[in-house]
Amino acid sequence: MELPVNLLPDEASPEWMNKADNAWQLTAATLVGLQSIPGLVIIYGSMVKKKWAVNSAFMAFYAFAAVLVCWVGWGYRMSFGDRLTPFLGRPATTLDEGFLLSQAFLGLFSNATMVFFQGVFAAITVILIAGALLGRMNFRAWMVFVPLWLTCSYTIIAYSIWCPDGWLGKLGMIDYSGGYVIHLSSGVAGFTAAYWVGPRADNDRERLPPNNIILMLAGAGLLWMGWTGFNGGDPYVASTDASLAVLNTHVCAATSLLTWLILDIFLYGKPSVIGAVQGMITGLVCITPAAGVVQGWAAIIMGTISGSVPWFTMMVLHNKVGLLRRVDDPMAVFHTHAVAGTLGGILTGFFAVPKLCRLFYMVPDWEKYIGLAYGLQSGRTSAGFRQMGIQLCGILFVICLNVVVTSLICLLIGLVIPLRLSDDGLKLGDSVIHGEEAFAFWGDGERLDEDCPRHNNSVYDMELPSMA
Fold first, then answer.
1. What are the residue ranges spanned by the domains of the chain?
2. What is the rounded CA–CA span in Å between residue 128 and residue 252?
3. CATH topology for 9-428?
4. d(Cα 59, Cα 44) in Å, to the nearest integer?
């Protein structure tokens, strides 16, 4: 078959593009997208009271769409584009064909692939923030919050840490796949926004029974398996390091889940399904900044720590610290993402293997990317402490930036749109906010229309044609 003269094979598949890497990167991006749509949509919709199911799920659904539009409009170039400042790129669109078909700044694939891959990371970050705001935030305020926070917070942190020209990236900070950029950032921003929005209604906060635990487990399963793309896609190549990152991710998550489960049984006498899901999440978050730069035994240690420290902060410390008790965080985003992300960043600075770091960052620099444990072992103690100092500096930067920027965004929105729902909205939930309800069960005050053939109790009640 002859190709049209204007369609040349080398233009569709240029020499610099590696088809395997491109296919893996698009697959990894899709797996990350599935963590949000439908993963977190299902988790949010099933872990709340049934009157909040639609609103909670739709906050995530809306955020995914809004972030992607803002991302191609200006967010990607602000995060990974030409340098404007040491912590921000120059705003520009990514809609030009010439740009999208050219080679990405990292990896043997096109910018179109990179834009999508990084876009789903940005989307899940904002969706995680929503977990701290369920059950009381005005949806219109949320619609404004999403693009503002993406523009004013996420882009700065992503550029500073992940862009080759970013100031923390140049220092040698290790954040393999978003322990800082995504999890610490969303945990702190969610907690800060929850403070300004205020708590749920008292009757909602006193008891929050999930409306469907089995469905919650399905969403959690999508989140867990989707993490294969989350951490496996960040080397930007289908490599041995990507394989190591995937294995470490699942080992750490499993260890963390089991640790949390054992603590629940030992101290409370019952294996909590919700607790197990929280343990799974803390393990996934903790390993994220370290996934491909630590050994397997370190992943198990990190899983043990991520299954116990956040358990302690959530189950014990939370009720003893006034600020934690006062701020209403329905999905425990502070503990599962801010605390676990902080642990991951610190443990990465301790366990990072120099050889694995060189495989990931593709640099021969022996004075960077040296975990403290290996610095002490090899006699490069100062380099190990330097790495730990950089990791702690990154934690401080992300926390301070998110507290300030998120507070300013909430205060600004509050001048125009109420951050909280009306009293009727807080009382009735989905039916007032969206005019829709998640569950349509007979017996909730509705009567069966016996004249409607669709409402017959059984197909056997219908008059069937004669077979004669």
1. 9-428
2. 20
3. Ammonium transporter fold (1.10.3430)
4. 9
Q: Categorize the per-residue pLDDT at 10 as very low, low, confident or very high, splitting at 50, 70 and 90.
A: low
Q: What is the 3-state secondary structure (H, E, C) of 261-296?
A: HHHHHHHHCCCCHHHHHHHHHHHHHHHHHHCCCCCH
Q: What count of other Cβ atoms lies within 10 Å of the Cβ of residue 85?
A: 13
With beta carbons less than 8 A apart as the criterion, state whether 252 and 299 touch.
yes
Residue 105 to residues 77, 82, 99, 313, 361, Cα–Cα distance (Å):
12, 11, 11, 40, 13
Instruction: Report d(CA 252, CA 90) in Å as an integer.
Output: 38
Give pLDDT, residue 454: 42
Number of H helices, E strands in the chain: 24, 2
Average pLDDT of 395-400?
97
Structure tokens at 371: 């975990």
C-alpha 119/C-alpha 138 separation (Å) is 25
Q: What is the DSSP string of 44-80?
A: HHHHS-GGGHHHHHHHHHHHHHHHHHHIIIIIHHHHH
pTM metric for this prediction: 0.90
302: Cα separation from own chain's centroid: 19
CA angle 18, 22, 27 (to 5 degrees): 150
